[in-house]
Design brief:
With 306 residues, the protein is α+β, with helices and mostly antiparallel strands. The strands form 2 sheets. Strands 4, 5, 6, 7, 8, 9, 10 and 11 form an 8-stranded mixed sheet that branches. Helix 3 runs parallel beside helix 4. The chain starts with 10 loop residues before the first helix and ends with a strand.
């Protein structure tokens, strides 16, 4: 099925892994797969398509079908796999969904089910227990998918040639054939200039903008950025609404909190997508010198606001 070396912990050791150790294990497995693909290709130029890895892992067929709200499915047979992707999703999302399903193959090869089954929980509700374990499994497969389609070494090489801006995020998304959201997360995780990204959605009921998720340095083993916005439901008018309604960048100063530390950071926000899928990304640079003047590239039209 695959020529990757089998040098992983035994079942009892897997049961004792921390979340960070489990993540590192599946990411290292993904890195070996990246190296194998690069060797087969003879080059390391992006994009890194999940369909290329699929052949190495024994996936004989990838199909696009109507799957409703499901992004992808992995079907396991005695000697091969088949992956089904949602035909209504764009190519970037299909690429990530396919990589996520490949993450499930790596999860199985590493026997990480021993890890998820050992997760501590404080509930007598079996369904809640199962959800905790399922969420842990999906996070591991996401971590593998991110490494497969945006390999840390190669992504970091391209990132190092760009400034920290929303335009750089969109440029990398195009280069690696990945969604802006996924690229923004990766960007904030490994950028040499510490930064954070925040995802916002429009509330159709109260017409406000609400916080969805965030990412920051080292976020691959965490669930949110270092600093969280104090106001997670922003009423109109605001620069977040301006960004939602227009395609330009809007600059503002927002208040964030980390434990007992409260700080104000300059923030650049931009809207992406259309219709119900429209969202806003905000970028914050953590270094104090950068916070005084957050840059935009020449490709961004910048508006000041509060």
């Amino acid at each position: 099925m695959t020529s990757l070396e089998n040098n992983e912990p035994n079942c009892s050791e897997l049961a004792l892994l921390s979340p960070e150790q489990a993540t590192n294990l599946i990411v290292e497995k993904a890195k070996k797969l990246v190296d194998e693909l690069i060797q087969q290709r003879g080059h390391a130029k992006p994009p890194f398509l999940s369909s290329e890895y699929a052949k190495i892992l024994g996936v004989t067929k990838i199909t696009q079908q109507k799957l409703g709200k499901i992004s992808g499915l992995l079907l396991k047979f005695p000697n091969h796999y088949i992956i089904k992707l949602n035909e209504n999703h764009n190519l970037a999302r299909q690429n990530f969904s396919c990589a996520h399903e490949l993450g499930h193959i790596l999860f199985t090869e590493l026997k990480l089910g021993n890890y998820t089954q050992s997760i501590e929980y404080r509930t007598f509700d079996p369904s809640a227990r199962n959800k905790l374990r399922s969420d842990a499994r999906e996070r591991l497969c996401d971590a593998a998918a991110i490494e497969l389609i945006m390999p840390e070494a190669k992504f970091g090489e391209y990132l190092s040639k760009l400034d920290v801006s929303i335009s750089s995020i969109t440029q990398l998304a195009n280069t690696f054939g990945v969604s802006v959201q996924a690229t923004a997360k990766r960007f904030s995780e490994i950028s040499m200039n510490p930064c954070m990204v925040y995802f916002w959605k429009f509330n159709t009921i109260n017409k406000g903008i609400y916080y969805g998720w965030s990412s920051g340095p080292g976020n691959i083993n965490q669930r949110q950025a270092l600093f969280m916005p104090i106001n997670k439901n922003v009423a109109t008018p605001s620069t977040l609404h301006d960004a939602y309604l227009h395609d330009d960048c809007f600059k503002s100063t927002r208040t964030f909190k980390r434990g007992n530390i409260i700080k104000r950071f300059q923030t650049v926000s931009k809207g992406f997508g259309t219709g119900d899928s429209r969202y806003v990304l905000s970028l914050v640079i953590l270094d104090d010198d950068y916070c005084e003047k957050l840059p935009c590239t020449s490709g961004d039209t910048l508006h000041e606001g509060s």
